[in-house]
Amino acid sequence: MTSLRIPVPSASLPSPPPPPSHHRLRLRLFSSCPRSRTPLLLAMASSSPPQLPELRQGIADFYDQSSGSWEQMWGDHMHHGFYDSDADDVSLSLSNHRSAQTRMIEESLRFASLLDPESKRPKRIVDVGCGIGGSSRYLARKFGAQCRGITLSPVQAQRANALATSQGLSNQVSFQVADALQQPFPDAEFDLVWSMESGEHMPDKPKFVKELARVAAPGATIIIVTWCHRDLSASEDSLNPWENELLQKICDAYFLPSWCSAGDYVHLLRSLSLQDIKVADWSPNVAPFWPAVLRSALTWKGLTSLLFSGFKTIKGALAVPLMIEGYKKGLIKFTIITCRKPEQAPDV
Ligand SMILES: C[S@@+](CC[C@H](N)C(=O)[O-])C[C@H]1O[C@@H](n2cnc3c(N)ncnc32)[C@H](O)[C@@H]1O
């Protein structure tokens, strides 16, 4: 396994140091989606509702419509697979790809040091943006933990609960419709806060990260696996026009608001005094995934299932080549970011 690590000093200072100059956060926190030009820093300061209602509804409808057809083809997980970076994607079978999705969970835990022999096993887990609950059920079994999952999609929450019941896990895991930006949980509730490919949907990244930190217990681990755009170079103030255009099309297809970079996330985590911040670009390790999604959509089963799952799902499928292009051109970065809430937590 190879993963590209961006060295990030751990942040344990009570007040955050200025971001590294190459992050240039303030200059760059503008929407990558041309439709919405709201600076993220304005969102940070604003008291407006945390989610634009139409975006929330769009996300809910998208997953309500597409989850059944995705599950039919791909099973439990609506996230990328993790592959050896030299994997030959064409020779991999669908079951190889499904195993790669499970491996994504394992590699994320390993990256966060939760598989170290001396590390404490999580017992109370929140799955933020849980899909049909694949990660929750996996983590509940692996750690004997209690898991709570939240999603915007009523269809997903219902299906996740049904699967938990049918798999004898209903006393360990449960799912509900709730907003990640206003989580229905008390402070300091969980010792693992898990967000697998939901961050890209969040219109207010500072609020998102703040909520993750709020529900984390002292000493808890936070794992964010998400799509980012590339970090800007020191001489850049924004992405190139063609990059913005490409992201705009992806935003339209998948109900995504502004994108940010890995460096932006690091800055946000540091501003909350979170510790042991680690970041890696796993783009080379997910490269076979989208070509496999495209191939699966072009099978008879894929095509018929798409036809019956509605316009939003078809639009999502048509955007798959754009994701492939975004990765190939180095614009999209599949990013893992992990950190720990200090034992003696300052208010976040
Ligand atoms: C790509 S799916 C990932 C699902 C799951 N984590 C997995 O790995 O299978 C994105 C998920 O994020 C959820 N989501 C997006 N925005 C959300 C929000 N504001 N609050 C809660 N869930 C959200 C969606 O409902 C969906 O379940």
TrEMBL record:
GO-annotated molecular function: S-adenosylmethionine-dependent methyltransferase activity
InterPro entries: Methyltransf_11, PiNMT-like, SAM-dependent_MTases_sf
SAM motif I: region residues: 125-134
Species annotation: Rhodamnia argentea
Family indicated by similarity: Belongs to the class I-like SAM-binding methyltransferase superfamily. gTMT family.
Annotated Methyltransferase type domain residues: 126-224
GO BP: any one term: methylation
Protein name: Probable tocopherol O-methyltransferase, chloroplastic
Keyword hit for Chaperone: no
UniProt region (SAM motif III), positions on chain: 215-224
Keyword Cell division: no
Region (SAM motif II): 188-196
Positions of region (Disordered): 1-23
